[in-house]
Design brief:
The structure holds 2 protein chains of 2 kinds. By secondary structure, chain A is mainly alpha-helical. Chain A has 10 helices and no strands. In chain A, α4 crosses α5 and α7 packs antiparallel against α10. Chain A starts with a helix and ends with a helix. Chain B is an alpha/beta fold. Chain B has one domain: P-loop containing nucleotide triphosphate hydrolases (Rossmann fold, 3-Layer(aba) Sandwich), CATH 3.40.50.300. Chain B is built from 9 helices and 9 strands. Chain B has helices at about 45-55, 70-75, 90-100, 105-120, 135-145, 165-180, 190-200, 215-220, 225-230; strands spanning about 5-15, 20-30, 35-40, 60-65, 75-80, 155, 185-190, 200-205, 210-215. Chain B is globular and about 50 Å long. The termini of chain B are far apart. The chains are: A mainly alpha, B alpha/beta. Adenosine-5'-triphosphate binds near residues 18, 43 and 47 of chain B.
Chain lengths: ~230, ~240
């Protein structure tokens, strides 16, 4: 028990004094997950919206696949990305393994289906509401997608935040493809795993607090957004 | 070949849904100008007919032929739905939306919004969220948004259903001015008084069939079919 209290105290001290390692790791975590989020959104928002408004032959199958991909175990994604990027793999020449780029790639694969699926759900509702008007006004596909994304931006932001929450807390895939290299690919989750293993609870807890704070912030933002959405204030 | 003065011609047009014929077969010619009122009890097929004309309802058989190519026709038409669709934006942005779609300049958009907001009496509410408007206000907004591109043809599906007497009179004024300025209007209503005030010609539907069509004065004074006669006298038609 004592050890834990001492660890907590030390953790607070690390946070309050803005410990160099702690700051570096936090910033890298944010850099990796935010980059992954931006890339995933660029793919998932138009894709999810497009799936909501377009009728085509394999639409149902595509949506089912998307929902299935949402449940991909991150460790398996890590393994696949590792195999693709490893020296003998198809993209080995790029030398990306054990770099933040590799971690971003893995996280993009993990969160794109999630964001696309949430986007699809929100956009399907909005499309049902707007369908008649947008058809009647003779809008192009591009105009339809733009209108839906703009007017559904709150729901989309909620989806993006959920994606970010998943990315920042994810450990399995980035551990495999990033390798948890000090000053290179160490991020919040992998550092916590490592420090806990070493028995250094101070840094582990300090990083843990930062991670919890981020998670709370994200969920609080999601909650606020969905409330304003219901009240129709924008 | 479509005659020059005929705006649109329906030939044996049928709409079937789930094995049931909900409209048709209808043969109908609408002339280049005028104010057509479509009458009929609930479920007669009025909305379906308007949507078929506008090209947003798939026809199962028969043809709909506009005097201009379909793409041109669609681009110069506007439609006010029975249940108005409000974009989740301000009243101002709802009005501006059709102009934005065609890439109008900022000053044109400003002028159009100001003008039409005044016409429909929503100037005070321009910055309110449209989804918070009352039912009647939504209908007025939908009408202003439909007229803002000065359409050649305007379809209206019970545009005054939720309006009080004064608003109805104002909206009828707006519609008559638009009609005089060259917008062809095709509109449904359950209000026979309104039909008398506005119609230049009347289309009477019953059970998806066209029962009577002609100049408003003729049809309203001396309906040819017993069903139409009963309907215009305010009887319940089955
Ligand atoms: N997609 C559909 N599938 C099955 N039936 C339909 C469909 N759309 C309309 N109908 C039926 O077709 C009939 C005509 O509908 P329509 O909406 O054209 O009536 P209406 O004359 O506009 O009635 P109201 O005065 O109530 O607005 C109704 O009986 C309706 O239930
Ligand atoms: Mg109707």
């Amino acid at each position: 028990m004592n050890e834990i209290w001492a660890g907590m105290l030390a953790a607070f001290r690390l946070i309050v004094t803005l410990d160099a390692d702690l700051v570096e790791i936090t910033l890298r975590s944010l850099q990796v997950s935010l980059s992954a989020l931006v890339i995933a959104c660029v793919i998932a928002l138009p894709l999810g919206t497009w799936l909501a408004i377009r009728r085509f032959r394999f639409r149902r199958a595509t949506i089912a696949t998307l929902n299935a991909l949402m449940g991909l175990p991150p460790v398996v994604v890590g393994l696949i990305v590792y195999l693709l990027l490893s020296r003998s793999g198809p993209f080995g020449v790029l030398g990306l393994l054990f770099t933040p780029t590799a971690m971003i790639i893995a996280q993009v694969i993990i969160i794109t289906p999630l964001i696309a699926s949430l986007t699809h759900q929100a956009m399907r509702e909005l499309w049902a509401e707007y369908h008649d008007l947008l058809i009647s006004l003779n809008t192009t596909s591009r105009q339809r997608i733009a209108t839906l994304i703009w007017d559904g931006r709150r729901a989309l932001l909620t989806g993006a935040l959920a994606g970010f929450g998943r990315a920042i807390g994810e450990v399995g895939a980035i551990m495999i493809v990033g390798g948890n290299i000090d000053h290179a690919t160490r991020v919040l989750t992998t550092a916590i795993a490592l420090e806990t293993g070493k028995g250094d609870f101070a840094l582990a807890l300090g990083l843990g607090f930062v991670l919890i704070a981020l998670a709370l912030l994200v969920n609080f933002a999601i909650h606020t957004l969905s409330r304003t959405e219901q009240e129709g204030t924008w | 070949m479509v005659d020059a003065s005929i705006l649109v011609a329906l030939r044996d047009t049928c709409v079937k849904r789930r094995g049931k014929t909900i409209l048709g077969p209808v043969n109908l010619d609408l002339l280049d100008d005028g104010f057509t009122i479509v009458l009929g009890p609930n479920g007669a097929g009025k909305t379906t007919l308007l949507k078929v004309l506008h090209g947003v309802e798939r026809v199962s058989s028969g043809t709909v032929k506009w005097s201009v190519p379909d793409a041109v026709a669609r681009q110069t038409q506007a439609y006010v739905f029975q249940r108005p669709v409000m974009l989740r934006r301000s009243v101002r942005q709802n009005l501006a939306y059709p102009l934005k779609l065609v890439g109008a300049s900022a000053s044109d958009i400003d002028n159009g919004v100001t003008f039409w907001a005044a016409q429909i009496g929503l100037t005070e509410m321009l910055d309110r969220p449209a989804t918070r408007l009352s039912g009647g206000e939504k209908q007025k907004l939908a009408l202003g948004r439909a007229l803002i591109r000065t359409p050649r043809v305007l379809f209206l599906d019970e545009p005054c259903a939720n309006l009080d007497g004064r608003s109805t009179r104002e909206i009828e004024g707006v519609l008559q001015r638009a009609n005089a300025a060259g917008t062809r209007i095709i509109m449904t209503t359950h209000n026979l008084g309104q039909a008398r005030r506005l119609a230049s010609d009347i289309v009477f539907l019953l059970n998806g069939r066209l029962h009577e069509q002609g100049r408003a004065t003729d049809v309203l004074r001396a309906p040819q079919t017993p069903e139409a006669k009963a309907f215009f006298q305010g009887d319940i038609v089955e």
